[in-house]
Amino acid sequence: MFIRTEELTHVYMPGTPFAATALRGVTLAIERGSCSALIGPSGSGKSTLIQHLNGLLKATAGRVVVDGRAVGEDRQEMLKLRRRVGLVFQMPEQQFFAETVYDEIAFAPRNMGCNPGAVEARVKQALNQVGLDYGKLKDRSPFHLSAGQKRLTAVAAILALRPEVLIMDEPTAGLDPANRQRLHDLLKTLNREAGLTILIVTHDLDQAAALADRILVLNDGRLVMSGPPAEILTRGAELRRLGLALPLLSEIMHGLSERGLPVNTAVFSLDQARREINRVRKQGATL
Amino acid sequence: MEVEQGEGGTVITQPIIKTEGIKYVYPGEAGEALALAGVDLTVDQGEYLAVIGPNGSGKTTLLKHLNALLIPAAGRVLVNGLDTAIEDNLPVIRAQCGMIFQNPDNQLVATTVEEDVAFGLENMAESPVQIRARVAEALKTVGLEKLAQHPPHLLSGGEKQRVAVAGILAMRPRCLLMDEPTAMLDPESRAGVLDTVRSLNRSQGITVIHVTHFPEEAALADRVLVLDRGKMIKDGSSREILTDLSLLHSLGLQGTVAAELAAGLAKDGFTPPPGLLHGRELVEYLCSSALKS
């Protein structure tokens, strides 16, 4: 198993009146090459969990194991871990600081001690991977890019580490539908063609179902569900109880099903929904 | 609509927001396209207005003009008749038009929730008794009275955003400006914030101007504006705009899921009623007519 957590527990501000337990004995596993989505209501522990996966937080109890090594045992290992597990925070473009797109993306490779030629190769490759034009953008200010380009630049800055795992917290927050689609396509390509292990954190079951091969559901610091989207999405009542809205399409399909139409409610795209409704119509006609 | 008794008994009506041909370019981006390229907009007291458009179309820029965070390079903005370019008007304008940003972490300043909500009032030099009463009232409205003593940074995203809303409400604004207020929230928190805002609009007549990328959120509004490259290219009812898929798709936007699915089904020989906007309408149509044999 590539990444696993064993009875991982995290308490913020322990021993104070504001002590808050964010994770309560979470045991989970993420396979190499998989694309998983971590969902759960606000305050369920999602952001705390991903910060453990690249060693930004220290476990109060339990442990995290990445590729056979326990996280947090020695400093050199920790530095290596942070290169192997790239973490893109929410609204990452708010952390831009460099004057050019080149310098923004070159920051990590330079800190890794790469020589100028290697830095340039990494910047070029990272921009290329996210579908941005190196020649056109390298000297532009990252602050003056469009919203979609900013987000892609922030992803490129992490890809320049050449990580094996890419973790993105709310990858599409604040993006319009066209940019959202572009980022989805990018994540799929990185996962399926470049073989990156991907974990996204999202509030959006639509997004989780569209991208991930596995959905992990956290609630109140505990892992409460885990499985492929088709299985998770059939547990509508439980998801609603957790305050997680079903994908909008599933809501419509559940609405039809509740009115007695024999539709399959686990649909992930408009086309699937359309086919399903047409199928039911045909059946009705032949009855 | 604001109604005042003018001289000689004539009734003067005044919109809460009026922009006249406003243009704006961000500093340091001279020579680039205008962020706003001449926007004329009139909003009456009590309206619930959604603003949609692709990233970079000028939505946030427009919103920031409505409480004088930005001053137009050309044209003018009147808030309740007060020109935002006149500095003396700013305290009144900012008390009347409160802004909720995308990320509540950028907006919370104090060490406890109630101090945070009181921040605006303290700056307005209200009396302590008055401040206490209004803070309690605002926290009750957003359903956070139990968290009054908590440090805001330990709340969940949805709770933080409701604290930000309470901080604005305590100032008793006439107008709530919201820039993608739910982008960082989970579905339940999102519903909580939207319900709060919708009921403030309905019961207290607070004007709402809501920038969003979610068609389902825009569908909560009565009226929807569409921006593209700094221009307002469409202004209409939410039903009219959010079911105009050829317009939305040409801008890289989407209609509501129900409208999109209905359009697909229309190609398969279904005849959904025009203007179908909400999921429940599609379910109703399919169950009551289309699929009934």
Please provide a written account of the structure.
- The complex is a heterodimer of chains A (287) and B (293).
- Chain A is built from 12 helices and 10 strands.
- In chain A, strands 6-7-8-3-9-10 form a 6-stranded mixed sheet, sandwiched between helices. A 4-stranded antiparallel sheet of chain A has the order 2-1-4-5, with helices on one face.
- The longest helix of chain A is centred in the last third of the chain and has 17 residues, at 270-286.
- Chain A has 287 residues and is α/β, with parallel strands linked by helices.
- The mean pLDDT of chain A is 90.
- Chain B has 293 residues and is of the alpha/beta class.
- Chain B has 11 helices and 12 strands.
- In chain B, the strands form 3 sheets. A 6-stranded mixed sheet of chain B has the order 8-9-10-5-11-12, sandwiched between helices.
- In chain B, β11 and β12 (231-237) form a beta hairpin.
- In chain B, 50% of the residues are buried.
- At the A-B interface, α7, α11 and α12 of A face α5, α6, α10 and α11 of B.
Keywords:
heterodimer; A: 287 residues; alpha/beta; six-stranded mixed β-sheet; four-stranded antiparallel β-sheet; 12 helices; 42% helix; B: 293 residues; 11 helices; 12 strands; 37% helix
Question: Concise description?
Answer:
Chain A has 287 residues and is of the alpha/beta class. Chain A contains twelve helices and ten strands.
Largest sheet of chain A: 6 strands, mixed
- Percentage of residues in DSSP E strands of chain A: 15-25%
Overall average pLDDT of chain A: 90
Helix amount of chain B: 25-40%
Briefly note the structural class of the backbone of chain A.
alpha/beta
N/C terminus separation of chain B: 50 Å
- Helix/strand-derived category of chain B reads alpha/beta
Shape of chain B: globular
Main β-sheet description of chain B: 6 strands, mixed
Strand order, largest beta sheet of chain B = 8-9-10-5-11-12
Radius of gyration of chain A: 21 Å
**Which stretches of chain A are low in confidence, meaning pLDDT under 50 for 5 or more residues running?**
none
What would the principal axes of the Cα set say about the shape of chain A? globular
End-to-end Cα distance of chain A, whole Å, is: 50 Å
Give the amount of beta strand of chain B, in percent.
Answer: 15-25%
Q: What is the share of helical residues of chain A?
A: 40-55%
